[in-house]
Write a structure and sequence with these properties.
Elements: E1 4-8, H1 13-16, H2 28-45, E2 51-54, H3 58-64, E3 70-73, H4 90-96, H5 98-106, H6 119-125, H7 127-135, E4 139-143, H8 145-156, E5 172-179, E6 182-189
Parallel strand pairs: 1-4, 2-3, 2-4
Antiparallel strand pairs: 1-5, 5-6
This protein binds glyceraldehyde-3-phosphate.
Glyceraldehyde-3-phosphate binds at residues 20-21, 79-80, 144-146, 164.
């Protein structure tokens, strides 16, 4: 039976600095996750032949680097574009753009960063990815929190409006097995 595995990139330098967006490298812990990932995937997937999909950002490729499978990069898997807030911390956004900060909290699904994207925008740009996923066999997707929330909501039949609030932890491999009665989920937390 076909499965889909999902993982966020390992912890990045920006994650440590609490900055959003950007294209930073993995932190030391992030690289530890990247080096453990092949073993974690193998334990979950066995011998099945996977294809790995990453975004075009450096942190997802560094995370997937040691995986012994064919890899494909998709621009459509890049993180939600925070526009003018790219590279800022949430505290900085609250000071510099207080109205935006509040508007986002009020309607996180529809809120679009000035010059950037909303969750709704991400859901729309993920449509070709979802269509391709439905056609493919076993795929491991290494991407970003906002993007994974939307993909996860789709397969779990959660209304997309709820996806911005879902928790997708770092350093955790999520296995989705679509079944007749719904999708079975297994979460494997890396020990780092
Ligand atoms: O850097 C962006 C985060 O992955 C998305 O988090 O939508 O909860 O601000 P947020």
């Amino acid at each position: 039976p076909r499965c889909i595995w999902l993982s966020r990139h390992g912890e990045s330098v920006y994650n440590v600095e609490k900055k959003i967006g950007g294209d930073s490298s993995l932190s030391a812990r992030g690289f530890q996750y990247a080096s453990k990932l092949p073993e974690i995937v193998r334990e979950s997937a066995g011998d099945v032949n996977l294809t790995v999909w990453t975004s075009t950002l450096c942190r997802t490729q560094q995370t997937a680097e040691s995986l012994p499978y064919k890899q494909l990069q998709w621009k459509a898997l890049d993180e939600l574009d925070a526009g003018v807030c790219d590279g800022m911390t949430y505290e900085e956004i609250e000071v510099k753009y207080p109205d935006d900060f509040k508007a986002r909290d009020d309607d996180k699904y529809e809120y679009r960063y000035p010059g950037g994207e909303s969750y709704r925008d991400v859901v729309i740009r993920l449509e070709p990815i979802i269509m391709e996923l439905e056609r493919q066999e076993n795929i491991l997707i290494v991407t970003h929190q906002a993007v994974l929330r939307c993909i996860y909501a789709y397969f779990m039949n959660v209304p997309q409006e709820e996806s911005p609030w879902m928790s997708i932890p770092l350093h955790t491999l999520i296995k989705l097995e679509p079944r007749a009665y719904g999708t079975e989920v297994t979460r494997i937390k890396a020990d780092i």
